[in-house]
Design brief:
This protein is mainly alpha-helical. It has one domain: Glutaredoxin. It is 59% helix and 9% strand. It is built from nine helices and three strands, in the order E-H-E-H-H-H-H-H-H-H-E-H. A three-stranded mixed sheet has the order 2-1-3. The radius of gyration is 17 Å and the shape is globular.
Length: 214
């Protein structure tokens, strides 16, 4: 284990299957290396209008995105966690990521980066495995309660201007760093962008960067 400390900015969207693959790998590596992982929300589409503009219609959005899910399954350490058929049959439109981003930032106000990460992972499980509508505030409140957060406070904080400002601050930082997709993980000390892949490949990249700053 190297003692060199690295700070990683992890840009993610709660509805992103590739983020679902990467997050547990980063958790594993955070236990091996001295990593300070800073969570950054990056909402691909912030509402129904943006989804229709991107995909043409909400049914078309679900169809195309579930194609991405299948690609994510093929590269996943836990492919059974992707419940593609259930999402295809779900009665709700494919959810956009803004409510989940606000929920993660609200969780962060309760418990810092650790709570943000826990909430992010819990929303992803609710979305990709349990096929719950993570654009529904009641679902997000339940997810928060399930991981031990104050659900009522979380809902209040989601509506606060300060929480929206934090989501917007991440958006500005993404623009500054020319982040255009998720997941994006940038090592601050070196500027290196991790290439998502098997944990052994990620480990090698982190080790190489740790040696550069040791």
């Amino acid at each position: 284990m190297t003692r060199a400390r690295l700070t990683l900015d992890f840009f993610h969207d709660v509805v992103c299957g590739w983020c679902f693959n990467l997050s547990p790998r980063l958790r594993l590596l955070a236990g091996e290396f001295d990593l300070d992982i800073r969570h950054r929300t990056f909402v691909l589409q912030a509402g129904t209008a943006e989804m229709i503009a991107r995909f043409g219609s909400m049914p078309a959005a679900k169809t195309e995105i579930l194609g991405h899910w299948r690609a994510c399954m093929a590269a996943s350490d836990t492919p059974d966690a992707f419940n593609v058929d259930a999402m295809a049959a779900a009665p709700f439109a494919y959810p956009h990521g803004l409510p989940g981003a606000l929920a993660c930032k609200a969780a962060e106000r309760q418990g810092g980066q650790a709570a943000h990460w826990d909430m992010f992972d819990a929303i992803q499980r609710a979305h990709l495995t349990d096929v719950r509508n993570v654009a529904d505030m009641r679902v997000l409140a339940n997810v928060a309660a399930e991981i031990g957060l104050d659900a009522a406070r979380l809902i209040d904080d989601m509506a606060a201007d300060a929480t929206g400002d934090r989501v917007e601050a991440d958006r500005r930082e993404a623009r500054r760093l020319q982040v255009r997709c998720v997941p994006t993980v940038i090592i601050r000390e070196t500027g290196h962008r991790l290439v998502n892949g098997p944990v052994e490949d990620l480990r090698a990249q982190i080790l190489a960067n740790a040696r550069l700053v040791a």
